[in-house]
Design brief:
FAD/NAD(P)-binding domain, about 30% helix, disordered C terminus, 24 strands
Length: about 550
Amino acid sequence: MKTYTNPVYPYTRAADLSGAPRRWPVIVAGAGPVGLTAAIDLAQRGIDVLVLDDDNTVSVGSRAICWSKRALEILDRLGCGERLVKKGVEWNVGRIFFRDEQVFDFNLLPETGHRRPAFINLQQYWVEQFLVERLGELPHAELRWKNKVVGVTERGDDVTVKVSTPDGEYSVHADWLIVADGAKSPIRGMLVLEAEGQVFRDRFLIADIHMTSDFPTERWSWFDPPFHRNQSALLHRQADNVWRVDFQLGWEADPEEEKKPEHIMPRLKAMLGDTADFEIEWASVYTFQCRRMRSFRQGRSLFVGDAAHLVSPFGARGANSGIQDVDNLMWKLELVLKQRATLTLIDSYDVERTFAADENIRATTRSTDFITPKGKTSRIFRDAVLMLAKRHPFARRLVNAGRLSVPAVLRDSPLNTPDAANSEFEGAMIPGTPAVDAPVTGPRGDWLLAYLEGGFTLLAFGAVVPESNVAALARSPIPISVVQVGDRSTTGACVIEDPDGVLAARYDAKPGTCYLFRPDQHVCARWRAFDPARVRAALARVTGESAMVEREAA
């Protein structure tokens, strides 16, 4: 490729080959974006983690390119979000074209007061490289290249992982195994587990081209364009003047033939014009499917990302949802490893993230059905919607060029404390919702999410938490940090100001309102007044302590 040279990471002989096998709290299988994110999260929490990967470089070709606002916020917490944003291409606007005209455009982040854009475009190889570099900064992590997992055995609370290397095989032990080895997941096969779902009978050509162009930094989607009749196409910009182009080909297309430059070039020139100056960097032909495992927890093996669930690429819900899997799981694993929560907390990972996977599968299946109608009637309906969308807003809601990735609202999570009957909250920030950022002023920076990092946090509007309670919550076995929203006269361990009232508006806050956030920044409880007993009860509900107490009492 003209714009990127894959790094070659050194192979190092594992000490386990000549000594007693070490036991790790956690082993991560797979050094893709999801596995690396998991390892960084664990290492930041002070948990020793071993990462095993059978390759010695990052991904070849851009692959995943759209990284959502929520994924960036998670990566901010892990110390590498800013680097991705600086390298990537920010975008909020998309345009929809039908045949030879634009029918409408949309803005995915129409309001101000957010640190991160709706999306950035950045090639997966850059993301993986930055994550590898971040992991190398953390003393609790070890990454072993050219170490291929060839066997997994579980006995009680021990997972034994058999590893093949250029110097031979060895075994290593762990309390937990994070399976992040991708869509084909060899480990899933070793454990005789299946992912169930639907395979779509269509093919798409994706190509990365290097091109200097004045096309705006937007996402352009075409249906039945003049340059590619009866099919769909997509164009958007990445870093380093690399552009991603997608062409629908149909099920009968020959994948090997379509990847040849002599077939790609005429398509690109028809789209971009004969005068466009570009070079093909990488190309692939893919089919897609929507599938998931029945359960993401199999004993001590925890499946994340594509190993657990697969979605079609429309909507950028693959890698982004995998990063959210990790965000959901790692803090739970920390509490269980430190014996501060019961195993039911690990079970909640499966409950919450299978729900999110089903939501993503539904969304991408509907997108696929709209983009690639399978019958005459479906196509007539699709085309009628597109024609109406130019003049009628109601029809725009029916256009589905890939409903883009949004975080799941875990409204039915067993970890949530329901609102009190008389609380009368309005707005979207119900228990189970990920935190929405807002501009603030305070000692850790100018954005709310910087104050919700790492552990449980109580956000209190007004000086409503006495200093004695602030200290008691900080000293509890599972500490709760208190952040009070006030002005310069407010006292407390951490005080932030809401200069424009944006924070209060987004959280429907009145004086006395309190929100309890989980370590993954999801709301787990909220009240109109501070009550330390209710806070403790909400925390006990999350960790399983309340269930333990109830069983002992019975």
